[in-house]
Amino acid sequence: QPNRVWRAKGFYGHFTTYSEVLQLIASLVLGLGLAGAAVWKSARRRADGTSISPTLRIAVLAGALLLISVALLLSGTRASQLGLFISGLVMVAALGSRKLVIVMLLAAIPVSVIGYAVLQQTRQQNETNEYRMTMWRDGVRLATESPRNLLVGVGMDSIKERWGEWDLFDGGRLPMGHFHSTPIQLAVERGLPALGLWLVFIALSAAAFWRAVRRMPSERFVSRGIVAGALGALAGFFTSGLVHYNLGDSEVVLVFYLIMGTAIVVIHCEEA
Q1: Cα dihedral value 43, 235, 244, 116, nearest 10
Q2: What is the tens place of the pLDDT at every residue in 221-268?
Q3: What is the pLDDT of residues 94-123, one digit of tens each?
Q4: What is the spatial distance between Cα 25 and Cα 111, in angstroms, rounded to a whole number?
């Protein structure tokens, strides 16, 4: 039965694209807010009439984050919502605030209850996990079918032409798509070495951002917030990518690399 339940998708053609972009932007906003909150009291005391009030700055960021979170909730995309939560935890841990970690964990309880209620409305009579589980099984089977597949994969987008030969999509009874997981998609199409390189890139980037956040003085809260936001966006992108092929979504990847590149530039400028 076709799904007739409305799910927010903004100006994009699909709600998953919308939710993934929202998660990345929300991570950046949250990073700036957390870094600014760390010096909020002292900055408020030093603020003069010619500068933007630190309280106003925090309020604007909090309002923006609230609106983005509501839109993300209305998209009904659980993986992106979980990605944003993981993003927040990683950023708070990097910024070194144990109190904020506890607050986030406590806040997750009512937020999860509200989110579950909304998801029940936005995802009723929606697709089950059967399609995703089928694609995961087929992906692992195809990736490990031969030494050649393990080494170099079956080729990008080749499943669109040879899905019948490889007995994918439940013999044609399921709609044609992808493997609904970035790691599985990389392993199938490009091989395990390519997947390993992607994981190394994620690990090295996360380590570099983590060190930069810990090393930057709290007074440089804008730079620190951008790098913290990039760290969170990376964590959220990786988390949601476990059950979404977000690396194959050009709009999402564009925002992802834009945030990553901005953070790298900020780190180099701060260290120059």
Answers
A1: -60
A2: 899 999 999 999 999 999 999 999 999 999 999 999 999 999 999 999
A3: 987 666 666 666 666 666 666 555 555 555
A4: 19
State pTM to two decimals: 0.85
H-run or E-run covering 83: helix 78-95
Distances from the Cα of 228 to the Cα of 102, 107, 169, 262, angstroms: 18, 21, 40, 12
Confidence check: pLDDT of 48 > 50? no
Q: Any residues with CB less than 8 A from the CB of 54 and at least 6 apart, and which?
A: 36, 39, 40, 43, 44, 47
How many alpha carbons fall within 13 Å on the CB side of residue 118?
19
Cα–Cα distances in Å, from 226 out to 24, 33, 47, 270?
A: 12, 10, 21, 12
What secondary structure does DSSP assign to 149-191, as a single string?
HHHH-S-TTTHHHHTTTTT-HHHHTSPP---S-HHHHHHHHH-
DSSP H/E element including 212: helix 192-215
Report the alpha-carbon distance of residue 169 to residue 187 in Å, rounded.
18
Amino acid found at 105: L
The residue type found at 236 is G
